[in-house]
Automatic annotation (TrEMBL), chain A:
One of its GO terms (molecular function) is transferase activity. SUPFAM superfamilies: WD40 repeat-like. This is Putative palmitoyltransferase ZDHHC22. GO terms for cellular component: late endosome membrane; lysosomal membrane; Mon1-Ccz1 complex. GO terms for biological process: regulation of autophagy. It comes from Platysternon megacephalum. The lineage of its organism: Eukaryota, Metazoa, Chordata, Craniata, Vertebrata. The keyword Chaperone does not apply.
From TrEMBL, chain B:
InterPro entries: Ccz1 (IPR013176), CCZ1/INTU/HSP4_longin_1 (IPR043987), CCZ1/INTU/HSP4_longin_3 (IPR043989), CCZ1/INTU_longin_2 (IPR043988). GO terms for cellular component: Mon1-Ccz1 complex. It comes from Platysternon megacephalum (big-headed turtle). Belongs to the CCZ1 family. Residues 19-144 form the CCZ1/INTU/HSP4 first Longin domain. This is Synaptotagmin-2. Residues 366-464 form the CCZ1/INTU/HPS4 third Longin domain. PANTHER family: VACUOLAR FUSION PROTEIN CCZ1 HOMOLOG-RELATED. Pfam families: Intu_longin_1, Intu_longin_2, Intu_longin_3. GO terms for biological process: vesicle-mediated transport. Signal peptide: none annotated. Residues 214-340 form the CCZ1/INTU second Longin domain.
Length: 557, 476
């Protein structure tokens, strides 16, 4: 295993028949399905999705070369484009007419560039002259035009997660027109222009769809533009420009990711991270727009979070009965030129017949980000972060990588900030529900507890109790760490659980630091509680003043 | 006698005064003719040798004689008409004796002849016994035990150390203003909210980490203790040293303000207000001496010798104690100044701000209506609204000395029994004095209410307990 590879291909890829002259392969971004169409469908179509265990296979009449093939959402209706003028449909609903039906595009002399399903029965045709939104009526085997819009289109892009279609218009192609689809309606969002790196010399298409991607990052839709290095501008390398595309207002340039290199790139978005693959060096880099960047008043500049690394080496599993033999798995060629990348996190190797999800591995990140504060900022935004964060905490408390108290305090503060946010959301939710204001408020949702919420019991179980029991650190440090955690909780006004106090008391008693304990109690740092008072009473025989301390506590209670 | 010029019937009061103070060890000169060897220290030194020997011999005899009646509790004091002697054996066979002259009233007859009247019952045994014990504790804090000195260099070294220490120390005793607070020798704790307290904890822990040779730390604000890394008994005497000797000596430059000439002599530092109260005065001076007082702690156990570094920013003072085997260098002092100075300055203003907020919330900024002294034997916490201010020379009280004496008497009564009790005394001119003892705590209240009866006084005290001591468990 090469060290520090924080990106990996998923262990269970979708395997399909390799592309070859008789087998055409298509990928549908909306359903994340791979279609293997043999001989135009006559000898079989096999559809495999990421989640489905059982592939769908069927045959269809060979009516010519298939240009595009996609199921509607829920695999209800199959749409096949064979010509540039029309799309054919085939129902997959049980007990509905099984005969194919066809829809030609409405605009005369227009060529269909492609189509997108926006629901189980709604489809959009994108032609070079505009966009046509249809309702499919499978029982009647016909389509009904809902809305259309004339506009010159160079190319289009569809983001199924946000139901937005982006059209490249104008001669240069850098004016992008988004459309939004919801509940049988099509709405036009405000168009925007992508700033090209240098004024183009001639009036030809200057913005390629290869350099544009659309993805949802931290719940917001962004258009990602890969701006190549130009010799005329004095940039140090290519960069990725992120345009925020809100539904209500106009698009705004927000972030610039500095790549500091040139060449061929591809983009993915995984776990809200922008991943930029670089083919020349066969490495990838990641960016997190939530991390602090350099803000110039309008745009935030981001540098690499981590040094560039390759995707983890991948062994192609030897399929079927061959694995019984001693055949060793074949290493997969990474960053191959036959790879095709789809949003948000899909990599397809058509020549080898694999579809992978790209994954971010957090363990290797720990050693690549020495700044623990930044590491926490990074980890807290990740989906599967809990165990990694807890292990970072354990690590910073023990040799050889023991952190300073200042660093430990920073980490605790970051964790508790997140913890407090959740507690507050939970509290205001409960309040709304209890006061009965929840009725008629569809927006009200119980706050989701993400893995980034590391509460006191997590810290106690996985970090602090283990740490105090190990006894490798000097007791001064042990107590300082416990007090630092309690300080941080107090700073965020989080009620401290009594088992943390018990841990402090246990540690102090073990080292005969009664006077210290005494002072903590005197200033109510260890808050009064019945269990605590009883614990103190039990200490009376070894430390007589505990008697008074516990009686005082019982009085206040 | 200038005062004698006054008319007839005038009287003049003379406060109690130190007559002599000596330390001896009978085992050092057991044979006849070698008596002088027993004497380790004698004040006043001018006293003729044979008188010294006589006085020491007398004390020895009294202690020896009274031991017959009470083997476990030897005599603590001897009352005579003119004076009182106090005995203390802090280490085996080492005796300290303090002789205090009783207060005197000088009256003048019509014929102008002065008549001297000794007030035999004025001095409180417990107060002066405690003063004598503190003399030893203070010596031990800066010099270690008597025995250690003998181990280090024989009787000669011990004598030198005693001479050096007590020569100065005895001048600071001020026996005329000793009272109940000297019995307690308590610690005044700074009231603080939990969050600020935790911030201070965090600060101390980080400082100990960055200045890794620091063994113990203590933190004070406004001359009141907030945190002690030392054990209670060591802190008790260090606290007394800091609040009655070190801090008052340094108060003037602080009151002088920024532009005063005194201030100008101090190293100019624009980033923070931190400065050393012990050790180097000017860090920019390459010749600056980094000499810190040495203190001895845990003398019963590990017997540690430490350098005492006291560093202060505004009202916050930190004591860093480092092992005596490490010699703090000028570089270390500069490092300390650059790390601690800025952080302590911020912390001090945080504490001040928080303190003012808390005061406003609790409404305790109003003058306390009650005059009281509170002491808790368990944590040595002491609180007095009777004493205005402690200065190195006098402790100013706001009540009549007679009332203070009643407090002392009640305290003596409390000492005699182990049970909780309450004593209510009707003093002269509408004053009531209430003493309350509950477990380890003692509370003394002075009330001045016209025509109050016992029930009303009792109610008032209950009210006080409910407001001032609401989180304390008092037995009724």
């Amino acid at each position: 295993m090469s060290r520090g590879c924080y990106l990996a291909l998923c262990a269970r890829p979708v395997q399909f028949e390799k592309a070859n002259p008789v087998n055409c392969v298509f990928f549908d971004e909306a359903n994340k399905q791979v279609f293997a169409v043999r001989s135009g469908g006559a000898t079989g179509v096999v559809v495999k999705g990421l989640e489905d265990k059982n592939p769908i296979s069927f045959r269809m009449e060979d009516k010519g070369e298939v240009k595009c093939i996609k199921f509607s959402l829920g695999n209800k209706i199959l749409a096949v484009q064979r010509t540039s003028k029309s799309v054919d449909f085939l129902n997959f609903i049980p007990d509905s007419p099984q005969l194919e039906y066809t829809q030609e595009c409405k605009t005369k002399n227009a060529n269909i560039l492609g189509f997108c399903w926006t629901s189980s029965t709604e489809i959009v045709f994108i032609t070079d002259q505009g966009i046509e939104f249809y309702q499919v009526l499978p029982e009647k085997r016909s389509l009904k035009l809902v809305k259309n819009q004339n506009i010159n289109v160079n190319w289009y892009m569809y983001c199924p997660e946000s139901s937005v279609i982006l059209l490249s218009t104008t001669v240069l192609g850098n004016v992008l027109q988004p459309f939004y689809f919801k509940g049988g309606t099509m709405s036009k969002l405000s168009k925007f222009e992508i700033e090209l790196p240098a004024a183009p010399k001639s009036s030809k298409l200057s913005l390629s769809e290869r350099d544009i991607a659309m993805a949802t990052i931290y719940g917001q839709l962004y258009v990602l533009y890969l701006r190549h290095h130009s010799r005329t501008s004095n940039s140090t390398g290519a960069e990725v420009v992120l345009y925020h595309l809100p539904r209500e207002s106009s698009c705004k340039k927000m972030h610039i990711l500095k790549l500091n290199r040139t060449g061929k790139f591809a983009l993915n978005v995984v776990d809200n991270l922008v991943v930029v693959h670089h083919q020349d060096t066969e490495t990838s880099v990641i960016f997190d727009i939530k991390l602090k960047g350099e803000f110039d008043g309008t745009v935030t500049l981001h540098q690499l979070v981590l040094p560039a690394r390759s995707i983890q080496p991948y062994q192609i599993p030897v399929a079927g009965p061959a694995s019984v033999t001693n055949q060793s798995p074949v290493p997969c060629k990474l960053y191959s030129s036959s790879w095709i990348v789809f949003q948000p996190d899909i990599i397809i190797s058509a020549s080898e017949g694999y579809l992978w999800n790209l994954e971010v591995k957090l363990e290797p990140v720990v050693n690549l980000l020495p700044d623990k504060g930044k590491l926490m900022d990074f980890l807290l935004q990740r989906k599967e972060c809990k165990m990694v964060i807890l292990s970072v905490c354990s690590q910073m408390l023990s040799e050889p990588d023991r952190g300073t108290l200042a660093v430990i305090a920073t980490v605790f503060d970051k964790l508790n900030h997140e913890y407090k946010k959740y507690l507050e959301a939970e509290q205001s939710y409960t309040m709304v529900v209890e006061t009965g204001q929840s009725r008629g408020n569809p927006l009200l949702k119980r706050p989701v507890r993400t893995q980034a919420v590391i509460d006191q019991s997590d810290m106690y179980t996985h970090v602090l109790s283990v740490f105090t029991e190990k006894k490798e650190a000097p007791h001064k440090f042990t107590i300082a760490v416990l007090m630092e955690y309690i300080r941080s909780l107090n700073q965020f006004q989080i009620a401290v659980q009594h088992y943390l106090y018990e841990l402090v008391i246990k540690t102090l008693v073990q080292h005969n630091l009664f006077y210290m304990l005494h002072q903590f109690l005197q200033y109510h740092v260890l808050s009064d509680s019945k269990p605590l008072a009883c614990l103190l009473l039990s200490l009376e025989s070894i430390y007589p003043p505990a008697h008074q301390l516990s009686l005082d506590m019982l009085k206040v209670l | 006698m200038a005062a004698a010029a006054g008319g007839a019937g005038q009287e003049k009061q003379l406060a109690p005064a130190l007559l002599s103070f000596f330390i001896y060890n009978p085992k050092l000169g057991p044979r006849e003719g070698e008596e002088e060897k027993k004497i380790l220290f004698y004040h006043p030194n001018e006293v003729e040798k044979n008188e010294k020997i006589r006085n020491v011999g007398l004390c020895e005899a009294i202690v020896q004689f009274t031991r017959t009646f009470s083997p476990s509790k030897p005599a603590k004091s001897l009352h005579t008409q003119k004076n009182r002697q106090f005995f203390n054996e802090p280490e085996e066979n080492f005796w300290m004796v303090m002789v205090v002259r009783n207060p005197i009233i000088e009256k003048y007859h019509k014929d102008g002849k002065p008549v001297i009247e000794y007030q035999e019952e004025e001095l409180l045994d417990k107060v002066y016994s405690s003063v004598l014990q503190q003399c030893y504790s203070m010596y031990k804090l800066f010099n270690g035990t008597f025995l250690k000195a003998i181990e280090d260099g024989g009787v000669r070294v011990l004598k030198e150390r005693l001479e050096k220490f007590f020569h100065r120390y005895l001048q600071t005793l001020h026996l005329q203003s000793c009272d109940l607070l000297d019995v307690f020798c308590g610690i005044s704790f700074f009231p603080l909210d939990k969050m600020t307290y935790l911030k201070i904890q965090s600060f101390i822990n980080r400082m100990e980490e960055s200045l890794n040779i620091v063994k113990y730390t203590a933190f004070l604000y406004n001359d009141q203790l907030i945190w002690s890394g030392l054990e209670q008994d060591d802190m008790r005497i260090l606290y007394k040293y800091l609040t009655t000797s070190l801090f008052p000596r340094h108060i003037e430059p602080e009151l002088a303000g920024r532009d005063s000439p005194i201030r100008a002599e101090m190293p100019g530092n624009l980033q923070h207000y931190g400065r050393f109260l012990t050790g180097p005065l000017n860090l920019n001076d390459p010749e600056a001496k980094c000499r810190f007082p040495k203190i001895f702690v845990n003398t019963d156990g590990t017997y540690e010798e430490l350098h005492l570094i006291v560093y202060k920013a505004m009202s916050a003072a930190v004591c860093f104690m480092i092992d005596a085997s490490m010699q703090p260098t000028l570089d270390f002092c500069r490092k300390l100044d650059s790390i601690v100075g800025p952080q302590l300055t911020v912390l001090a203003s945080d504490i001040c701000e928080q303190y003012n907020i808390n005061k406003r919330i609790s409404g305790s900024e109003k003058e306390p209506q009650f005059k009281f002294i509170y002491f808790n034997h368990m944590n040595l916490a002491e609180k007095s609204t009777i004493h205005m201010r402690k200065t190195p020379s006098v402790s100013l009280t706001s009540v009549h000395p007679d009332l203070m004496k009643i407090l002392g008497d009640i305290n003596s009564d409390f000492t005699r029994v182990d049970e909780d009790e309450e004593i209510i005394v009707k003093a002269m001119s509408d004053y009531w004095v209430v003493g309350k003892k509950s477990d380890q705590r003692e509370l003394y209240v002075i009330l001045n209410q016209k025509n109050a009866n016992l029930i009303e006084v009792n109610e008032e005290v209950k009210k006080l307990c409910a407001t001032q001591f609401n989180n304390i468990f008092f037995l009724d």
